[in-house]
Every structure is written in C-alpha cells, then in structure tokens.
Amino acid sequence: MAKTLFEKIWNRHIVKTIDGGPAVMYIDKHFIHEVTSPQAFNGLNKRGIQVFRPQQTVATADHNVPTLNQHLPIKEELSRKQVEALIKNCAEHGVELYGLGHPYQGIVHVIGPELGITQPGMTIVCGDSHTSTHGAFGSIAFGIGTSEVEMVLATQCLLQTKPKLMRINVEGDLKNGVVSKDIVLYILSKISASGATGYAVEFAGSAIRSLSMEARMTICNMSIEMGGRCGLIAPDETTFSYIKGRKFAPPLSPEGGQEGSAWDKALTNWKTLYSDADAVFDKEYHFDAADIEPMITYGTNPGMGIPVTGTIPTTETINETDKSGLNKSLAYMGLQQGAPIRGQKVDYVFIGSCTNSRIEDLRMVASFVKGKQKANDVEVWIVPGSKQVEAQAKAEGIDKIFEEAGFMLRQPGCSACLGMNEDKIPAGKYCISTSNRNFEGRQGAGARTLLASPLTAAAAAVTGVVTDVRELMPPSPEGEFVSSLIESNQTN
Fold it and tell me: What's the confidence (pLDDT) of residue 492?
C-alpha cells in the first residue's frame, strides 16, 4: 500500500496503538532548554526516577540568555535561575549540556542540524513549538508541553494521535530577491495562520527541492505558524551532502571490522524516505513560485502578510469573520487600511531567531550590505544562531562588514524573537524581524513587529523604511542574485 513520507516514519516508531485512543510513539532525539525543562525535572525528582535514556537527550541554553557579555553572570534573576537549574539538572541526570561558553551552544533548532544530530527518519521533540524546523531533514519533529517533556525524559516515549496529512506543492522558479522566508509568508497569506491546523504538512515541488538545507529549515520552522502539527520535506542529495561529515553524523569509515560504514547503511535507509507516487493526502495545495514577491506582515499573526509592493487590506476586501481581527490588529500596529506598506518607518531591525540566524542568512545579509551604511535612526541587531555560526561569521570577515555598516553582531541566543530576555523592542517602535511571530507584545510590551526575509530586513536597515529589496539589487536573471550573495561570502 502506498504511503506518505510521514506515514513511513510514523509506522516505524509506533510502540503500541491504543484502541480508540492515541499511539505510544518512540522518540529518537529529545532537545531541552532552560525554560520548559525545570518543571519536568522536578517531576522526575519527586518520583525519585532518573532520565531513562540520557544519551538521547541534548540540552542547551538559548531562550533567556543575554546576547551581550555572556562571560558575565546573568543579571536578570529569572533567567539566571533557569540557566542554573538546567546546569544542575543535566549534571544530576547525565544529560549532555551545551551551556553558555560551550563552543556548541546556541538556539536549539540551529545546533541540532549543524552538529549532525538531526537526521532523516527520526522522531524529534522539544519543549518549543518551532521544533518543526528539524522536519526539513525528513523527520517527524514537533513541540511538546512541559508534562510531555517529563514523559519523554522518563520513558523515551510519548502518547500521540496521528494527525491528518497535507501536502503543499510549490513549483517553478523564484523571482530575483525572493527567498524561502518569502515562500512561507506567501503560503501563510493564502491559507491563513490556522489553515493547517490538525495536519502534518509535507512541502514539495521543484521550488522546494531547489532550496538549500538552511532555506528548507526556514520553511519547516514556520509550518507551526499555519497551525500545522509539524512540517517536513523529503530528504535528497542536498540533505545528505549537508549532513555528511558533521560532528554527530554517522561515521564514514567502518568500525570494528564490520563491512560497510555506518554512513553507507544510514544512506541506504534515508533514500527510502519519500512519499510514494500514489500516496494519498487529506488535503493538497498548489502554488506557482513565479507568483511570490518579497513579503512582509502588517498585522498581529503571521498569516497577515502582503507583498512589500502591496497595500494593507480593507474591511471591504476580506471575509466578514476577519474584519474585527483586522481592525484590532491595525489599531495595535498603528497602520491604516488601504495604505501602502512600502515606505513605512522602521526603528529596529532584528536578524536572528531559529527561523533565520544560520550562516547562510548572515552571508546573504553581509553580501547585500557590503559597502552600505545603516540609516541613522535605525538600530540593527544581528544575532547568530549558535557559537559555530558566530565563529564562522568571524572567520569569513562577516563581522567586519556588519561593523562597517553600523550593524551590531551580538552573541548567540533567541534574543528579540520572544522578549523573554534583555533584548526587547520598546513600546510603540517598529521592528522588521526575521523571526517567526508578530503577536502583540511578542518582542516586548507594545512592540510592533513586521516579519520579513533577511534580505527585506537588510534593505530596511539601510533605507530606514520598508523597501522592496529588488530596487537595490543589480539586474540579473531570476534567482541568480540571491545565489551569488551566498556563494560570494562562502568562498571569500
């Protein structure tokens, strides 16, 4: 019987199916951090039990950590206590921790892939909704609550109900200046922030297959923003090339005299992970890549997006049920119905988060802003997703380019994505952000967030207003300029 990619992975991980209820699913890898793990460890300690399989759990400090002076004690009391609790709990339970100062520390959904921990066919969970990021490797990856974190720590299993299945196909070539963040914001604008509720979403099509792994991670990262339980992309040669040789990837040489390497064996398995040609999905969407423009949000959920050349919707152009939401969002954002978004004043630019803080993102921005200066009245924060990204940026001279442009390269962490740390946007100020959510108060009480790609954010940084990045690009065949931006810094 034909199966989807999701079904193939799901079936391999079901320990037991409960009649009329959920299934017991085995979890291959569990990521934890300082915010959602303390209560889970407390639960274990009260029951007098240890983490069942500590070698399958990886910890890092990311959400609440400062992004300046990480060598100093954390000033904010709650953040300090949470990080201290993580250190204590990991030591007591034998869990590997990449804390502040460790060369592997960083945002949990950045370090998993870059270390080769994230691999095709896995089930992966974390007490963070954007665990869906790891699905870019052809894995089932999703966020869980604190009680579920405790369940996985105690049993390495989780009760789960099989979701419905959706496939979103994007075919064709992307226009110049359009990148993966624009793709996913476009999809969100079409199906809404609840359009995939209850579904596991597979992204497919030639436009998706043409993306790098880091770009694919951006797509899957935001599958949760359309209500999806998880997002995934079938692994291919791009996936295998990315993983090969990384720290925790299967080794390339045979071990113990056995024939064939662990890498070869893994590769044979990974190549079976795709949706069969006649597999059936509960729902499918089809989009043409040529229709996608550089995108930006105007409201207070990620589905409220328009092209940067577009105008803010009016109550006459939207569904009756969305009218009150539009009015409420625009009142918070201080924007007007029917007004163009291009030219809107920007106060802050934040390039970072688990959505867009990888080395490819920084290379793209650095190549674009090289030789340019930020607008005088804009503050720009560049926050790398990990210590490895930070080190690579410095090795390539990207830090110098940012410094000369007036951008601030900070230290790794979730930073201004969620306002749980010291990096907050002041009330009433506008921030173009490469993060994943624009909810009221997400980046700080009263902060006004406009989500966009790293390129669109960089364009606003140098002009001081929402700008169509294509106006600042040299003419080139579709898609070629973005590719050249990434490659130029990679080879410098």
Answer: 39
